[in-house]
């Protein structure tokens, strides 16, 4: 139960103002806002664009939510005809939404790369990176809305088709054929219908499973992309490490050679010294 | 008070972080970004309650310390959460002058004085930034909530209000007043957040009484001031359906000095005693592998890992009060369940591989896709579970190492027997002179407990013998001086505390057979079972809550801030037993008392007890304070 003392603060400001006036100090109320222009300029570059992206995503979200009811309302027989959406309209919405989401994702990517190039302090960099993360999470939430909507629509279409089996009437009436041929034809028809139905069932099952698999694939690709950056950095490190090891080997080889050469020289020097000693000794004696 | 203190404090923090407006439930709302600036007090309050991820989810892009170098980030609002001290106010004024942020939301942890508010006002005027200071709030959150029903006062300056500071012989009145003011301020904030005016009971003649008098006065003043009272308002409505007011029991550490020195056997208390456990974060040292290091190589590096034990960790919530062997078994069980689930997921992989050979595999596909989807969605849960199991395995192994090397189970058993005055099988001298049972500190603790709980002090000759044995073992004898003084003092005042009857049943050999399969082979560590017994603090609470008459608590003072006239009488006006109580120990508390209170509450339906203390110390820290007092 916090206490709001903003009003108290404003009252203190007034008190201090009157006190300053009474003491004859500089009256600050006539000073212009010098930082207003500077603030406006800084706003344009990063946060202005970030806010633009957010407002676009919000527009998309509102649009999706607005038309959600009609979009999902696929195949209900008793809906009012005015708000009925045709399939082509739905496809149009799908396409538009996807293009829009892709543009937003591109805009975020662009902001990120630009931010990498600018020279600002670490804190500002971290702040901007976090802001971009927040925007991405928001975009992902809106995309989830859209894909849920779409999955519901696909499911309803699939269900609707299942119930239309009974509408496959066999309307063929042929007066020229004899009763036996008619019966034979009827039997064959039944058999064909049965076969088609079983095929249809299987296809429908596969369709449902494919939708699920596509969802799974989305999850997997997200995970793989996440790991991509880490794998890249590991790759760089390993390449660097191999280089270092190679150079290390070279250095060791050289050191061994130098060591050997050094020993040879020492040996030579000692032999020379002993010969010179012998010579001097012979010379003296 | 349906919501716990932790939930209330978290809700208050979340509201503050949402620009002091109640947070919306909308899941896909537009993100608004902001900065959080805090001082060390604010950091201690926020860190047990909100994780960095939760802060990010609320839109906080950066969280910075007030007194660090901060760069201007020109178009972002900044939320400040600081204590109203001189340095903090100066720094805020400096920020205003340097125009670091777009707008400022100032939240003070406890109430700010009028003069400091004017300082900020004049700085804002000078920087022409008055319109940028959008909101100023007094949050009244000057306490740290560690568990749903446990809180401590502060972590930063705890030497200021420690047991040592309150009880040192050369304390001056001004110091004492300062300490009391700090404690009362925090307790006042606690009751404002809780939203209830309690009935206060305290013993006579010690620090607890002083705190009670001041707190009563402060609550009374605030209630009288009808315009600005913090205890009325529409936000309080939800909490006030319980017409009963809570009972606030103030206890002083001096009434029971043996419990902080006691060796313990429950999981959370053991971690606090043996490892570095601080604000729900434990640091464990791990040694790097067990291969023999070749001669001349560098010594094995030990790295310290720290883990957070939070409310979301279900294993921790379930087992933090269980005796240690139970915890070991439970970790084993969790590991087994996890392995079973992992195997199931792996089996799916092999089924997927088989499928390619079979043409008619479309029917198999249907089951498996569903299984695959459920497996993939449950993977994050599984990973989290694995992480928690690893965490607890590491922590429990570290604790077990300490127990084995110091033979803490022997100490625990012996101390339980001492405190319950049952017969002892080994003599105290044997344990003290035993060179590989425990560190010097453990022996000193044992001896102090013996000294505190014995009915009459040991004879001079015995005492000399003990002292010599202790010095041989390497102990420092200054705490003993202090305890002698304390005992003399309390003997004059009241009868020494009775620790109640308890029993300890060792389950020696049986445990070996049971645990051979488990990862924790507890050979030689007796599997002790705790029987229920009541510590002095719990007994006092019981008497006061149930209005039982008992010579110990009959002359406790009674304060009711809502009454018009403060009375000196100690006759309680309320004859019904209380449903909710808050116990606060002035001078420090620990997890053993907390666990005892939790067990007491579990045994009684419908009662809620909160535990608070001015600081939380384990036995080692308490011994240090005692030796400082003994050296004076």
From TrEMBL, chain A:
It is found in: Endoplasmic reticulum membrane. It is a single-pass type IV membrane protein. Residues 182-209 form a coiled coil. Syntaxin that may be involved in targeting and fusion of Golgi-derived retrograde transport vesicles with the ER. One of its GO terms (molecular function) is SNAP receptor activity. It comes from the Eukaryota. InterPro entries: SNARE (IPR010989), Syntaxin-18_N (IPR019529), Syntaxin/epimorphin_CS (IPR006012). The lineage of its organism: Eukaryota, Metazoa, Chordata, Craniata, Vertebrata. This is Syntaxin-18. The keyword Transport applies. GO terms for biological process: intracellular protein transport; retrograde vesicle-mediated transport, Golgi to endoplasmic reticulum. It comes from Cyprinus carpio carpio. Belongs to the syntaxin family. Residues 4-93 form the SNARE-complex protein Syntaxin-18 N-terminal domain. GO terms for cellular component: endoplasmic reticulum membrane; SNARE complex. Keywords: Coiled coil, Endoplasmic reticulum, ER-Golgi transport, Membrane, Protein transport, Transmembrane, Transmembrane helix, Transport. It holds the Pfam family Syntaxin-18_N. The chain crosses the membrane at residues 262-283. Its main location: endoplasmic reticulum.
TrEMBL record, chain B:
It comes from the Eukaryota. Keywords: Cytoplasm, Membrane, Protein transport, Transport. One of its GO terms (biological process) is protein transport. It is a peripheral membrane protein. Its main location: cytoplasm. It is found in: Cytoplasm; Golgi apparatus, Golgi stack membrane. Pfam families: Sec1. One of its GO terms (cellular component) is Golgi cisterna membrane. Residues 286-306 are annotated as: Disordered. The keyword Lipid metabolism does not apply. InterPro entries: Sec-1-like_dom1, Sec-1-like_dom3a, Sec1-like, Sec1-like_dom2, Sec1-like_sf. Plays a role in SNARE-pin assembly and Golgi-to-ER retrograde transport via its interaction with COG4. Involved in vesicular transport between the endoplasmic reticulum and the Golgi. Belongs to the STXBP/unc-18/SEC1 family. PANTHER family: VESICLE PROTEIN SORTING-ASSOCIATED. This is Sec1 family domain-containing protein 1. It comes from Cyprinus carpio.
């Amino acid at each position: 139960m916090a206490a709001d003392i903003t009003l108290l603060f404003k009252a203190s400001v007034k008190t201090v103002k009157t006190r300053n006036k009474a003491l004859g100090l500089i009256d600050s109320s006539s000073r212009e806002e010098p930082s207003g222009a500077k603030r406006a300029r800084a706003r344009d570059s990063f946060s202005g664009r970030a806010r633009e992206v957010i407002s676009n995503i919000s527009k998309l979200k509102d649009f999706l939510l607005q038309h959600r009811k009609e979009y999902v309302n696929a195949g209900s027989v008793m809906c009012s005809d005015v708000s009925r959406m045709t399939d082509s309209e739905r496809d149009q919405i799908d396409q538009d939404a996807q293009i829009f989401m892709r543009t937003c994702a591109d805009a975020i990517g662009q902001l990120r790369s630009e931010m990498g190039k600018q020279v600002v302090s670490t804190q500002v960099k971290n702040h901007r990176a976090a802001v971009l993360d927040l925007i991405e999470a928001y975009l992902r939430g809106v995309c989830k809305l859209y894909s849920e909507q779409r999955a519901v629509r696909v499911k309803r279409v699939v269900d609707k088709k299942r119930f239309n089996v009974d509408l496959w009437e066999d309307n063929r009436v042929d007066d020229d054929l004899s009763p036996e041929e008619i019966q034979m034809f009827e039997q064959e028809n039944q058999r064909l219908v049965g076969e088609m139905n079983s095929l249809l069932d299987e296809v429908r099952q596969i369709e449902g499973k494919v939708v699920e698999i596509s969802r799974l694939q989305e999850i997997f690709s997200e995970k793989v992309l996440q790991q991509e950056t880490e794998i890249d950095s590991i790759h760089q490190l390993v390449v660097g490490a191999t280089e270092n090891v190679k150079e290390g080997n070279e250095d060791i080889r050289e050191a061994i050679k130098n060591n050997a050469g050094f020993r040879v020289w020492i040996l030579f020097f000692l032999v020379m010294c002993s010969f010179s000693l012998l010579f001097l000794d012979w010379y003296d004696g | 008070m349906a919501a716990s203190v932790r939930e209330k404090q978290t809700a208050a923090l979340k509201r503050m972080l949402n620009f002091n407006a109640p947070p919306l439930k909308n899941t896909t709302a537009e993100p608004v970004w902001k900065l959080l600036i805090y001082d060390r007090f604010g950091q201690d309050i926020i860190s047990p309650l909100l994780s960095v991820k939760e802060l990010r989810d609320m839109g906080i892009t950066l969280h910075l310390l007030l007194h660090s170098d901060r760069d201007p980030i020109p178009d972002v609002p900044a939320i400040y959460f600081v204590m109203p001290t001189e340095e903090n106010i100066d720094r805020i004024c400096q920020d205003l002058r340097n125009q670091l942020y777009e707008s400022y939301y100032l939240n003070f942890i406890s109430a700010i004085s009028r003069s400091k508010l004017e300082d900020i006002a004049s700085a804002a005027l000078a920087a022409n930034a008055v319109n940028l200071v959008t909101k100023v709030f007094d949050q009244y959150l000057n306490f740290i909530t560690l568990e749903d029903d446990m809180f401590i006062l502060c972590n930063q300056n705890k030497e200021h209000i420690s047991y040592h500071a309150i009880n040192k012989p050369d304390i001056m009145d001004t110091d004492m007043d300062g300490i009391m003011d700090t404690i009362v301020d925090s307790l006042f904030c606690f009751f404002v957040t809780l939203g209830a005016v309690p009935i206060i009971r305290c013993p006579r003649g010690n620090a607890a009484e002083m705190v009670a008098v001041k707190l009563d006065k402060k609550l009374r003043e605030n209630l009288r001031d009808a315009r600005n009272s913090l205890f009325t308002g529409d936000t309080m409505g939800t909490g006030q359906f319980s017409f009963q007011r809570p009972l606030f029991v103030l206890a002083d550490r001096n009434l029971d000095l043996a419990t902080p020195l006691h060796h313990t056997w429950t999981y959370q208390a053991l971690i606090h005693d043996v490892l570095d456990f601080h604000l729900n974060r434990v640091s464990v040292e791990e040694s790097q592998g067990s291969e023999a290091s070749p001669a001349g190589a560098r010594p094995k590096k030990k790295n310290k890992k720290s883990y957070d034990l939070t409310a979301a960790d279900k294993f921790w919530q379930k087992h933090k009060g269980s005796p240690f062997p139970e915890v070991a078994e439970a970790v084993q069980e969790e590991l087994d369940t996890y392995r079973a689930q992992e195997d199931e997921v792996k089996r799916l992989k092999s089924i997927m591989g088989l499928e390619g050979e079979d043409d008619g595999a479309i029917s198999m596909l249907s089951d498996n896709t569903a299984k695959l989807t459920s497996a993939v969605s449950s993977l994050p849960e599984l990973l989290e579970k694995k992480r928690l199991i690893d965490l607890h395995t590491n922590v429990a192994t570290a604790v077990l190492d300490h127990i084995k090397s110091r033979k803490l189970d022997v100490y625990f058993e012996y101390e339980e027997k001492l405190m319950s005055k049952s017969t002892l099988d080994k003599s105290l001298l044997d344990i003290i002179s035993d060179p590989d049972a425990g560190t010097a500190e453990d022996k000193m603790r044992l001896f102090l407990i013996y000294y505190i709980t014995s009915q009459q002090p040991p004879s001079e000759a015995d005492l000399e013998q003990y002292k010599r044995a202790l010095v041989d073992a390497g102990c420092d004898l200054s705490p003993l001086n202090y305890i002698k003084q304390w005992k003399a003092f309390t003997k004059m005042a009241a009868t020494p505390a009775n620790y109640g009857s308890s029993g300890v049943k060792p389950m020696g050999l049986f445990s070996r057979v049971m645990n051979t399969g488990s990862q924790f082979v507890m050979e030689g560590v007796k599997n002790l079972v705790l029987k229920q017994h009541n510590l002095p603090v719990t007994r006092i609470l019981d008497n006061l809550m149930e209005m039982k008459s008992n010579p110990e608590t009959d002359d406790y003072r009674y304060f009711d801030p809502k009454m018009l006239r403060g009375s000196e009488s100690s006759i309680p006006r309320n004859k019904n037993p209380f449903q909710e109580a808050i116990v606060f120990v002035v001078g420090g508390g620990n997890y053993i008392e907390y666990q005892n209170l939790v067990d007491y509450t579990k045994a009684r339906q419908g009662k809620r007890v909160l535990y608070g203390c001015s600081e939380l110390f384990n036995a080692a820290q308490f011994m240090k304070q005692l030796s400082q007092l003994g050296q004076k």
